Amino acid sequence: MDLSYTPKELAFRDEVQAFLRNTVPSALTDKVRQGQHLSKTDQEQWHALLHARGWLANHWPAAHGGPGWSAVEKFIFENECALAYAPRTVPFGVNMLGPVLIKYGNEVQKRHWLPRILDGSDWWCQGYSEPGAGSDLAAVKTTAVRDASGEHYIVNGQKTWTTLGHHANMIFCLVRTNREAKAQEGISFLLIDMASAGIEVRPIITLDGAHEVNEVFFTDVKVPVSNLVGEENKGWTSAKYLLTYERTNIAGVGFSVAALARLKAIAQRVHKGGKPLAQDPLFAARVAKVEIDLENMKTTNARVIAAVAGGGAPGAESSMLKIRGTEIRQELNALTRRAMGPHALPLLAAGEASEGEPEAHFAANQYFNNRKLSIFGGSNEIQKNIISKMILGL
């Protein structure tokens, strides 16, 4: 695949850069640059800006509100957003549920839910992981049993690590609708209103003191059968399809490109033994290695995006991207924090870092927060099992 930009693609890059420069408020980019947590209002503002421009659902078909971009244009947009410190788009509605509804939802569901994802009427969260069912999602125990009328499910159980669930008004869930069937064959994909009676959200406070994830409890929650996506007991198909999008997104190629550029700038600014750190042979070798890995991953990422644009779905490639993408992002985080040395102390509030190292807080925040990348979305060990089965037949 030729990754050199055509004149049309260069013009598109200029358009994206102009949008980011002229439209995105500095209050948002400053927060991202300093590693601060974005509020719900911040996220909604970014969502609305992208939607107004028609760029929010950039991997959806044009018929459903997507911009009809090529694989290269999608890469350019992601890359430029990361370089400009634009916020990360909350992925659960637009990047995860949207593709599932487009492929497996019925026409009524598409007409109702897809526009609401685009205009921000609904904030979605993901109900996959449970205690004892994280990377092994087939072990989910949350149940959904039809009531006497047959028109509603009664849902009982618990979900955990529900990112931004305290902001959400809707949750898409994997639920067990047949306890007698084999694990994957008894699971269904259900859309649940978070305002339903019997739902309780409890915060999980992370190491940095932030409230980002939650536990969600369901006690006799009544859900219309019309909220079932796809066939009953066939939700594992939808779940796998969604996970390929989640894992590709976790790879974060654009974030890594921006992190590499930031690292190189820091290595020129910080000195060791009277010379820029970039001239230290050992440090330079580690930077060179991660840059080579990133260039390889960019090519694979473009291939996957192109396959999806052609009507396919990411397969084992999404697991490859997830593994290498998370490893590269963690290595870049580690090198950036190493470059800043004692300035990048953990758990400092924004503004407490040394004036000489204004990005130190960002470096520390990213290093610790991104340790989770190789675990969520299916741990990297699980991804290696998937690759061995799908490609090697083991």
Note down, in words, how this protein is organized:
The chain has 12 helices and 10 strands. The model has no long low-confidence stretch (mean pLDDT 88). α8 (253-269) runs parallel beside α10. The strands form 3 sheets. Strands 1-4-5-8 form a 4-stranded mixed sheet. The protein has a 4-stranded antiparallel sheet with strand order 2-3-7-6, with no helix packed on it. The chain starts with 6 loop residues before the first helix and ends with a helix. The protein is 48% helix and 14% strand. The chain is α+β, with helices and mostly antiparallel strands. It has helices at 7-23, 26-33, 40-53, 71-83, 91-104, 107-119, 235-251, 253-269, 281-309, 316-340, 360-369, 380-390, and strands at residues 124-127, 143-146, 152-159, 170-176, 187-193, 199-205, 211-224, 228-229, 271-272, 275-276. The longest helix has 29 residues, at 281-309.
Q: What is the number of E strands? A: 10
Whole-number mean pLDDT: 88
Helix content: 40-55%
**Shape designation:** globular
Strand content: 5-15%
Main sheet record: 4 strands, mixed
Quickly give the structural class.
alpha+beta
Radius of gyration: 22 Å
Unreliable spans are none
Order of helices and strands: HHHHHHEEEEEEEEHHEEHHHH
Number of helices: 12
Notable features of this structure?
48% helix; four-stranded antiparallel β-sheet; 394 residues; alpha+beta
